[in-house]
Design brief:
Helix 6 packs antiparallel against helix 7. This protein is an alpha+beta fold. It folds into 3 domains: 106 residues, Immunoglobulin-like; 108 residues, no CATH class; 129 residues, 3-Layer(aba) Sandwich (Glutaredoxin), CATH 3.40.30. It starts with a helix and ends with a helix. The strands form 4 sheets. A 5-stranded mixed sheet has the order 13-12-11-14-15, with helices on one face. Strands 4-1-7-8 form a 4-stranded mixed sheet.
Length: 380
């Protein structure tokens, strides 16, 4: 009997080890800001940013706990490395006071420390050290950017000082984008980089840069929905690159009538396809330039077809009238899910596509003086 009990105990222990399989991980958090005592910490599992953009109301898979005596903890199991995001505490407005990307690995013991400055440090495994290295490099840039933005917003600067700060902010923004691009590119197959994969591709901008970003992807990375979305966008960008024939867009005009880009494109005029929305501040700022170009060139074989990423017809129609846009308009009123924007892989607005008289794509995303110069070259 005793031997049977020992055998049963041994079997039970073996099953327990098998169940964990060395796959258990633990996150131990420390919060040094006493004002966050008792607030909640959410652990959000890896999810597709693509899905979240498509449906912001969807529930993200998460776990939660509370900060008690400046501490919190999470534990679980993973069979292979993955990542999660921690949203730590709440600020006065109810938004997370801090957040951190944490790589979950079998057997990992991970430390997450949020200081009184609400900056968070993650450590415990080489992948988490990698995440922290990237975050630390970005902190200096972000702190400088925020300081400049506050100085700019004060409204006490001279015109020269404002221009200098705008230039410096643009330079810092580019440095932050370059930092994340290089981080993702060099670590494309490490979950440490997956959270930033989608945004790095969007901010990369050009077709060549996006291809460069994901060139080294293999294995599980290629199974990520965000990766597949990037590949699909690259394919659409190739189809709508400069030198390619235009891809037709079929939506509806403000009266609900079917309308096609091919009704105007490829019929002897230069056509500017303008992607915009009534809720888009930069679009509103740029529109006087577009209106001026239309007035200057409408009698020189030039026309405009605007594709709206609006969701509300009344706001769309009102903006057309108030912004003075006397040309052709189309939309499916699906916001960022606009079928026309998807065909041209538009990820930010305003965005323009300039078509030649035969419908060939001559330029993409020209605005302001650059667009005027191109039209002067084409339509002297």
């Amino acid at each position: 009997m005793r031997n049977k009990l020992l055998a049963a105990a041994a079997l039970g222990a073996a099953l327990l080890v098998s169940a964990c399989g060395g796959n258990a991980y633990r996150i131990d958090g420390t919060v040094e800001d006493p004002s966050l005592e008792g607030t909640v910490v959410y652990k959000v599992a890896r999810f597709s940013i693509t899905d979240l953009i498509a449906d912001p109301t969807q529930q993200m898979p998460m776990d939660s706990t509370f900060i008690t005596d400046g501490k919190y903890a999470f534990s679980g199991e993973v069979s292979e490395p993955d990542y999660c995001t921690l949203y730590i505490g709440k600020d006065a407005g109810g938004a997370p006071a801090a957040h951190a990307t944490v790589v979950l690995e079998p057997g990992a013991k991970i430390a997450v420390v949020t200081g009184v400055d609400r900056k968070t440090r993650v450590s415990g495994t080489p992948s988490n050290d990698l995440v922290q290295e990237n975050e630390t490099a970005g902190e200096t840039l972000r702190d400088r950017f925020l300081a400049l933005r506050e100085q700019y917003a004060a409204g006490t600067l001279s015109t020269e000082e404002s221009a200098r700060i705008e230039t410096e902010m643009d330079e810092i923004r580019q440095q932050m984008e370059d930092l994340d691009f290089q981080f993702v590119k060099e670590n494309i197959n490490n979950p440490a980089a997956w959270e930033k994969l989608y945004n790095a591709a969007v901010m990369a901008g050009s077709l060549e840069k996006q291809k460069e970003l994901i060139a080294g992807a293999e294995g599980r990375t290629k199974e990520l929905k965000d990766y597949q979305t990037i590949v699909g966008r690259i394919e659409r960008l190739e189809k709508t690159a400069v030198g390619q024939p235009f891809v037709d867009i079929s939506l509806e005009d403000p009266d609900g009538n079917p309308m096609h880009l091919s009704d105007y494109a490829g019929k002897g005029k230069c056509i500017l396809v303008d992607f915009w929305a009534s809720w888009c501040g930069p679009c509103k700022a740029e529109m006087p330039n577009v209106v001026a170009l239309y007035k200057a060139y409408k009698d020189k074989d030039f026309d405009i077809v605007s594709v709206s990423l609006d969701s509300h017809k009344d706001r769309w129609v009102k903006a057309i009238e108030e912004w003075g846009m006397p040309w052709h308009h189309m939309s499916d009123l699906k916001g960022w899910d606009c079928a026309g924007a998807a065909l041209y892989a538009v990820t930010a607005i305003p965005h323009t596509v300039l078509l030649g008289p035969d419908g060939t794509i001559l330029a993409r995303n020209l605005t302001g003086d650059d667009l005027r110069a191109k039209l002067e070259e084409l339509l002297p």
